[in-house]
């Protein structure tokens, strides 16, 4: 598995993009009941505020640095550049590699119209890809009977990978609750369904490199995302700055007696100094 490093209260997987793709497909091939989270700043703040959600991230087999700030934070905190591994990029890359390896996929979430458009594109561009099935669950909590039927349908289709789009943090909680029940590797990719289906445009790569994707998403859905981007992301910056300052203080060497400005003290003088200091304290 990929090495995880801490950012705020979460542990984020690290490595090159091909390593992420290979690790996820190996989980799928093993039919391990595992799940993958794509972590952005909003998700890390959620984990900071909610210990239960923090456990959801901790139990994930892979947690990708989905947002540019999260990827940058890994580099700042741990001294090694980390590329962004966004769900919107991961979905098409995994589909292409799954087709090459003969692995099957399943789509769970969003609407029937979105799923139909996704499957049409996948079959058009990746004819070798095995699409095992898809489901568009209702936008409400399922009854125990409905949930059992959904799980049974997924397992009957027997996919290697199950892509889940229920929105954050609902999709992450769903995957954690179904670990051990769904016999596949589950991936929470959220808005990537809309983009892959061609129903939502994405910013050009140069704009994404300038960290402008959040502004574009906010422009598209101001009512839904205003609090997330203007409040939650500000809170993420504050928490990250605090962690960076604390880390800097820990790494700053403390001055030792006799070592100020390069002064080296002979052991006998140091012993006398300590004895004198001790006598002063007791007096």
From TrEMBL:
Pfam families per the UniProt record, alphabetical: Glyco_tran_WecG (PF03808)
Record CDD domains: Glyco_transf_WecG_TagA
Organism this protein belongs to: Hymenobacter armeniacus
Keyword Transferase assigned: yes
Protein name per its UniProtKB record: WecB/TagA/CpsF family glycosyltransferase
Record keywords, A-Z: Glycosyltransferase, Transferase
Domain of life of the native organism: Bacteria
């Amino acid at each position: 598995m990929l090495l995880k490093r801490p950012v705020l209260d979460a542990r984020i997987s690290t490595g090159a993009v091909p390593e992420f793709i290979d690790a996820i497909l190996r989980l799928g091939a093993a039919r391990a009941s595992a799940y993958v989270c794509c972590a952005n700043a909003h998700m890390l703040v959620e984990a900071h505020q909610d210990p239960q959600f923090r456990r959801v991230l901790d139990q994930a087999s892979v947690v990708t640095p989905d947002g540019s700030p999260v990827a940058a934070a890994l580099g700042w905190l741990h001294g090694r550049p980390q590329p962004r591994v966004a769900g919107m990029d991961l979905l098409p890359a995994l589909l292409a590699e799954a087709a090459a390896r003969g692995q099957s996929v399943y789509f769970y979430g969003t609407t029937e119209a979105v799923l139909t458009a996704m499957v049409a594109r996948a079959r058009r561009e990746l004819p070798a890809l095995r699409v095992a099935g898809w489901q568009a669950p209702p936008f409400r909590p399922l009854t125990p009977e409905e949930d059992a039927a959904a799980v049974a349908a997924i397992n009957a289709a027997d996919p290697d990978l199950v892509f889940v789009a229920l929105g954050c943090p609902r999709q992450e909680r769903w995957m954690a609750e179904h670990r051990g029940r769904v016999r596949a590797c589950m991936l929470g990719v959220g808005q990537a369904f809309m983009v892959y289906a061609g129903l939502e445009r994405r910013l050009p790569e140069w704009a994404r490199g300038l960290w402008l994707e959040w502004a574009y998403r906010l422009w598209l859905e101001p009512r839904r995302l205003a609090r997330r981007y203007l409040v939650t992301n500000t809170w993420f910056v504050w928490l990250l700055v605090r962690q960076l300052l604390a880390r800097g203080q820990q790494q700053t060497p403390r001055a030792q007696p006799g070592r100020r400005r390069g002064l080296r003290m002979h052991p006998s003088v140091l012993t006398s100094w300590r004895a004198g200091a001790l006598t002063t304290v007791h007096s």
